[in-house]
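Reminder: ligand-aware prediction takes two inputs, not one.
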Amino acid sequence: MANQSKQAKRLREQARRNQLIRYQSGEPCGNGHVAERYVKTNTCVECLRQWRLNNPTKIANYAKEWQSANRAHLREYHRKWRNDNKERWSALLQKSYKTRRAKKQAKQ
Ligand SMILES: [Zn+2]
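Here is what comes back for the chain with zinc ion:
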């Protein structure tokens, strides 16, 4: 990774103090993107976006691993969400019911 200028370092530090997730360094990354960077890792947003596009299986595997390691957390999170979003949840259920029924009828 190319060394950042004092200016870019100062902008990152400022963003960290303001508890921002991303900041604009104004300088190109190693791959020449002049894009925002993540404050925590200093990763270029554009590089990460391209990496994600090129590695869909890795993303899916990370997600699966995380989900199986955090089952209890997810169960609680979804329970709370359903409780806080009763109308949206019942709309989703209805939609899913209708889709399934339509598929079933299409098969017959
Ligand atoms: Zn980049």
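The first strand starts at residue 22 and ends at 24. The longest helix spans residues 86-107. We will return to this case in the review session.
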